[in-house]
């Protein structure tokens, strides 16, 4: 529970720091158009949908604790949004940041979004194979039990 609270707290801190960073920087006139703002709003909405639907698909424990503490689902989740995009929480978060950066016409927001995306891509290189491995091990264990 402490790990989950820490993850949520740090996500809130990250979001707030992101808002403060882009709110104090200059904007690009090139991005200050209604079209860019609407694209940003659309990306933000899609990002929120991915993050929230991922949470509902995984539940609290699956989202924050499952893989790392051996609390696994019956099988790897493949329903929406996991059937649309791999790692929807990560990509949803990136889309949220990108949407806010575009709505704010913020070049620093675009840069910070690229940093966040880079960190998530690195994390996905480890998390994806780890998740696949533990579910494969679980399936192997269950097949041994049924024999």
UniProtKB/TrEMBL annotation:
GO biological process, one term: methylation
Top-level EC class as recorded in UniProt: transferase
GO cellular component entries: endoplasmic reticulum membrane; mitochondrial membrane
Catalytic reactions of this protein: a 1,2-diacyl-sn-glycero-3-phospho-N,N-dimethylethanolamine + S-adenosyl-L-methionine = a 1,2-diacyl-sn-glycero-3-phosphocholine + S-adenosyl-L-homocysteine + H(+); a 1,2-diacyl-sn-glycero-3-phospho-N-methylethanolamine + S-adenosyl-L-methionine = a 1,2-diacyl-sn-glycero-3-phospho-N,N-dimethylethanolamine + S-adenosyl-L-homocysteine + H(+); a 1,2-diacyl-sn-glycero-3-phosphoethanolamine + S-adenosyl-L-methionine = a 1,2-diacyl-sn-glycero-3-phospho-N-methylethanolamine + S-adenosyl-L-homocysteine + H(+)
Residues spanning the membrane: 37-61
Protein name: Phosphatidylethanolamine N-methyltransferase
EC number of this enzyme: 2.1.1.17, 2.1.1.71
Cytoplasmic side: 14-40, 126-147
Keywords recorded for this protein, A-Z: Endoplasmic reticulum, Lipid biosynthesis, Lipid metabolism, Membrane, Methyltransferase, Mitochondrion, Phospholipid biosynthesis, Phospholipid metabolism, S-adenosyl-L-methionine, Transferase, Transmembrane, Transmembrane helix
The keyword Lipid metabolism appears for this protein: yes
Membrane topology: Multi-pass membrane protein
Residues reported to bind S-adenosyl-L-methionine: 45-47, 127-128
Top-level taxonomy: Eukaryota, Metazoa, Echinodermata, Eleutherozoa, Echinozoa
Role of this protein: Catalyzes the three sequential steps of the methylation pathway for the biosynthesis of phosphatidylcholine, a critical and essential component for membrane structure.
Pathway(s) served: Lipid metabolism; Phospholipid metabolism; phosphatidylcholine biosynthesis
A Pfam family of this chain: PEMT
InterPro entries, per the entry: PEMT/MFAP, Phopholipid_MeTrfase
GO molecular function, one term: phosphatidyl-N-methylethanolamine N-methyltransferase activity
Localization annotation: Endoplasmic reticulum membrane; Mitochondrion membrane
Main subcellular localisation: endoplasmic reticulum
Family as reported in the entry's similarity comment: Belongs to the class VI-like SAM-binding methyltransferase superfamily. PEMT/PEM2 methyltransferase family.
Topological domains, Lumenal: 1, 62-104
């Amino acid at each position: 529970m402490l790990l989950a609270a820490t993850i949520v707290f740090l996500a809130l801190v990250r979001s707030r720091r992101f808002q403060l960073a882009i709110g104090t920087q200059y904007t690009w006139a090139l991005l200050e158009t209604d079209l860019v703002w609407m694209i940003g709003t659309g990306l933000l909405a899609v990002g929120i949908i991915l993050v929230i639907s991922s949470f509902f698909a995984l539940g609290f424990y699956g989202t924050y604790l499952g893989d790392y503490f051996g609390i696994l689902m019956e099988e790897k989740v493949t329903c929406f949004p996991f059937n649309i995009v791999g790692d929807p929480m990560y990509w949803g978060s990136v889309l949220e940041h990108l949407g806010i950066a575009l709505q704010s016409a913020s070049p620093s927001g675009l840069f910070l979004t690229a940093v966040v995306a880079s960190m998530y891509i690195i994390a996905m290189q480890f998390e994806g194979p780890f998740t696949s491995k533990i579910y494969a091990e679980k399936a192997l264990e269950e097949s041994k039990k049924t024999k």
